[in-house]
């Protein structure tokens, strides 16, 4: 039956759709998303006040913190909103539009269409941006393929393992980010940095721990997606740092989304195509039209979230973005405890403490590092999804640049699309202690 053929109720108790818990979870997630948007708006107002009123050396620090907080809040909010939308589409609407790979494929195609439209409108009197063929084949295509494999691997893993085990193994992704960041000289090899990342990863594993069943195939699939995720995050930062022009989020999506879409097309058609063609969503015209509209709506959310994620990456670093993603996961578990009264055992509590300690260590290490070690931070003012004014993005720009291999991170958290295995786990740590980082982020 393909990836989408996994039963929506893995426990087989049949009470997924009719109890009020799902609606309660959706409502809570929606409120959470609105609060995060409000938080981002408050940070924006605070930043404007700081720019107008504050003086002295603290001004730059306060403005920088508020700027990052704005984009982090928006990232969290779009991620949560996308989860709500996709859960409704996958599990509730007309019994569930159970084709996650097809949705991901259409989202990639929509991202390319939207980014192309934006680029053409912004550069109506100029030539469209191009990149050398060597950079296209050595950077855009490999990372686009990696993005597609990340999506497919994550969805496939749910056929073999619980979401708890997925979360625990996926916690290794930041370790791979750190390894690739050191390889590409994006981060210095400092003991404090390495220790802090491992402490945070250990904390997330402990905080997510529950009853798990090991499966070798599922373990390898998740470990592979963690490796691919670290590869993409680090190489995205490499590209942004090395190209001497305004490579912004729109252009990043514009160059890598075709490869991702072309990779997902055969995977989705092979695994989900035959079942989709014979489903009611194709045979009934009104459902076909509504399906297209719903996919477009979710795709716009995914496009907006990816823009925000790339903006956040441009203002921090790949490792810092990973830490922020872990913060989101901790908030997700805490939210489940406060709203749904989920229980935490002693290991979970220790996991929270380890995570807090690790993040404090990481913040201290970043504070004492020299400015030149902060990766792409020094060019953050050039990185904007909505800034084309000074961007002469042509083949000549690339020819005069010192370019290393690299491209983009689309860990939109698997496009925000979750496996049917997550039907009972809209938030982390459900009654069976299952948790998932889909409100993560890819």
TrEMBL record:
Q: Which organism is it from?
A: Mucochytrium quahogii
Under the heading InterPro entries, the entry gives: Sugar_P_trans_dom, TPT_transporter
Which key words are in the record?
Answer: Membrane, Transmembrane, Transmembrane helix
All copies of the Sugar phosphate transporter domain together span 68-362
Instruction: State the source organism's domain of life.
Output: Eukaryota
* Entry's transmembrane regions: 26-49, 61-85, 97-114, 135-152, 158-180, 192-210, 216-235, 247-267, 287-307, 319-340, 346-363
Signal peptide region: none
Q: How does it sit in the membrane?
A: Multi-pass membrane protein
Presence of the UniProt keyword Transmembrane in the record: yes
Q: Does the keyword Transmembrane apply?
A: yes
Q: Which residues form a coiled coil?
A: none
Protein name, per record: Sugar phosphate transporter domain-containing protein
Q: Say where the protein is mainly found.
A: membrane
Quote the subcellular location field of this record. Answer: Membrane
Taxonomic lineage: Eukaryota, Sar, Stramenopiles, Bigyra, Labyrinthulomycetes
Q: Which GO terms describe its cellular component?
A: membrane
